[in-house]
Design the sequence.
């Protein structure tokens, strides 16, 4: 049972790290949208390639993402990440504790 518990903890840690990294990528995308950077910059291209598919789905799903010219899709994605982190990752940690 210890092996299964350790695997669950490992999955929870990896998922937590990926969600935290993507959280900061979305923050970077929001900041970049305010300053209008060079679209050919490699960092800008990577950030946009990582975030635009998710933002597109949120914009398609929620019709009110533009309020007063402000794009709210990064905020919706950030809230989704926090909910996933609070529910799924914490549930995995609790499951691992019960398996010990």
Sequence:
């Amino acid at each position: 049972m210890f092996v299964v518990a350790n695997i669950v903890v490992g999955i929870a840690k990896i998922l937590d790290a990926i969600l935290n990294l993507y959280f900061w990528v979305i923050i970077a995308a929001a900041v970049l949208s305010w300053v209008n950077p060079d679209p050919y910059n490699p960092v800008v291209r990577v950030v946009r390639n990582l975030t635009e598919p998710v933002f597109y789905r949120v914009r398609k799903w929620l019709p009110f993402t533009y309020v007063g010219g402000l794009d709210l899709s990064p905020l919706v994605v950030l809230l989704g990440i926090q909910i996933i982190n609070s529910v799924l990752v914490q549930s995995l940690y609790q499951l691992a504790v019960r398996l010990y």
Remarks:
- The first strand starts at residue 66 and ends at 67.
- Residues 27 and 39 are 17 Å apart (CA to CA).
- The chain has one domain: 2-99.
- Helices lie at 2-35, 42-61, 73-99.
